[in-house]
Amino acid sequence: MNLFCIGLSHHSADVETRENFAGHAEIDRVLRACGCNEALLLSTCNRVEVYAASENFVPTDQIARCLARTQMVELDGHLETFYRYEAADCVRHLFRVVSGLDSMVVGETEILGQAKKAYETARVAGAAGKYLHRLFQRAFRVAKHVRTHTEITRGAVSVGSVAVDLAQRIFGNLRNCKVLVLGAGETSERTVRALVSRGLADLRVSNRSPERAEALALAVNGRAISFEQWPEQCAEIDILITSTSSEVPLLSQEKLAPMLRSRIDRPLFIIDIAVPRDVAADVNELDGVYLYDIDSLRSIAEQSLATRRAQVAAAEEIISQHVTEFNESIGRGLNCPAQNPEPPAVGESSLRPSEL
Amino acid sequence: MAIAHTVLELRGGMFRPMQFNFFAVGLGFIFQTAFLSIRGHALGRCPITNLFEVIIFVAWSVALFYMVVGTAYRLSLMGAFTAPLVVLLQLFALLASIDRPHPTKLPANPWLEFHASISLIAYGAFALACIAGVMYLVQERQLKTHQLRSIFYHLPPLSDLFAAITRLLWWGFALYTLGLISGFFVGEPLPWPQIVCAVGVWILYGLILQGRHLRWFAPKRVAALCIIGFSAALTLLWGITFTAQTHTP
């Protein structure tokens, strides 16, 4: 039995090409009709891949034709964007994909959920048999192994998620935190939305233009505060997000220090994403105040990404071990094929080495 | 084991908050309990008759509070900070040749034993508050300087650490107060310098708690004061057990 993978990803094709070959509702049936005994389609925003097992060789262009969303899509000019992995290379590729090593943001974990969903769909449709079952169950174990034995998923890699990560390191649970958003810009809205996703409920928005403050407050389920009143809020809030277009700093050490006296036991996290900055740098010297500007947030995001990249070698090593083990086990399996195999659902079974 | 495990993992650029440290300290705690139990049976009383036993008892109290607090606050990395303190205390006790039997067999005095043991258990709480203080300062420093090391992602949030410090201080203070009061029922004259020093430590911890309650001190100061307070308490303990052997139960 030939195990192979044919597909395209963000590495090889632009989004338009990926859209054209994203598959369709009848894909399982079509793939089996063109010679695949087992077939599974993994389609995400960054990749479209077919994992298949077949008795005979199935050419790449035949699979590409199956993936085309309509008959109108021309293969010419697109065929070279497809890659093909056979046998051990196919196994390695899948293990890398589900572990997040092949993702646009190295170490992202969403792909594992997407792969599990793709496997489940193929299993329910009867398109995934014993070979793909073994391959994918093993891949899910590899992804878990990589995640727990390396720091490939560590740290946040975008400004918004770094801000959320830092807020959690300061306050723990964000549910009871009070946030003031100063300046109703796009970046501050994204940051607020990231915080809201972690359960934050008390949001106040202030802007020179009251209409924009009202609009953002409505969008994030907060309340608008008049721009003249925002300094008084500093005695109450836990997180301040500023992104105004002010030419001079709005908050200095002299202004903030008296407001902090009544809240000495509570930290204040300031996220200043304005350029030029809204908060004077010396504010960070005050006890209990943690000031991060856009550069420091970006620097942490880059640091996390670098850490993740540094873990790639360790992850590859783990994957290599699993590829060797899997190939040995599948070799034994080919000589002595399992009798049954109605593959179980995701999570119902994870194969032990002895089962392989 | 806990120290080696954490150092190896952090040097490798990662630390998994697994249960390893908890079990390593837990195993040590079982051995400590066994030792104190055997020694207690041999002496026919609470085994805190000389400096060696007192130090082992303090190390046991530290491990005891870690088992309670570390689980309650899920401060997995606290094991890595607790283990060095326990190891240092025990190493000192073993290497300093201070396990000298008391020249005379001391008569059993339940009040004196209660006074000494409850005070030493309070030391366990103060020691752990000191450890949580160190963790707070490490985390706070990283947040201030924006230099986030591998350990940053495994230390608990500042708010959780501060809550742990506050509770440990209250536990330690309540137990220490109980120990101090019971000292007046031992039926033996207590040396004045010891009483003054013990009351001094009690006042110091009382002030830290009062300062925290009335918001005189920022959390960072409270964390630093926990370290200073425990250093003072250790000095007092040394003074009591080393210079006043006759009073030690």
Provide a short characterization of the protein structure.
The complex is a heterodimer of chains A (356) and B (249). With 356 residues, chain A is α/β, with parallel strands linked by helices. In chain A, 44% of the residues lie in helices and 15% in strands.
List key phrases describing it.
heterodimer, A: 356 residues, alpha/beta, 4-stranded antiparallel sheet, 10 strands, 44% helix, elongated, B: 249 residues, mainly alpha, 73% helix
Report on the architecture of this protein:
The complex is a heterodimer of chains A (356) and B (249). By secondary structure, chain A is an alpha/beta fold. Chain A is built from 13 helices and 10 strands. Chain A has helices at 15-20, 27-33, 60-67, 87-98, 110-125, 130-149, 159-171, 186-196, 210-219, 230-233, 253-260, 294-310, 312-335, and strands at 2-9, 38-43, 47-54, 83-86, 178-182, 202-206, 223-225, 239-242, 268-272, 289-293. Residues 334-341 and 347-356 of chain A have low confidence and may be disordered. Chain B is mostly helical and 249 residues long. In chain B, helix 2 (20-43) packs antiparallel against helix 3 (51-72), helix 3 runs antiparallel to helix 4 and helix 7 packs antiparallel against helix 8 (219-243). The model of chain B has no long low-confidence stretch (mean pLDDT 80). The chains are: A alpha/beta (356), B mainly alpha (249). The interface between A and B is medium-sized, with 26 and 26 residues.
Strand order of the largest sheet of chain A: 7-6-5-8-9-10
Tell me the structural class of chain A: alpha/beta
Overall shape of chain A: elongated
**Uncertain runs of chain B:** none
| Cα radius of gyration of chain B in angstroms | 19 Å
Report the sheet with the most strands of chain A, covering strand number, pairing sense and barrel closure: 6 strands, parallel
Order of helices and strands of chain A: EHHEEHEHHHHEHEHEHEHEEHH
Oligomerization state: heterodimer
Helix percentage range of chain B: over 70%
Task: Give the beta-strand count of chain B.
Answer: 0
Largest interface: A-B, 26 and 26 residues
Kindly provide the radius of gyration of chain A, computed on alpha-carbon positions and rounded to a whole number of angstroms: 26 Å
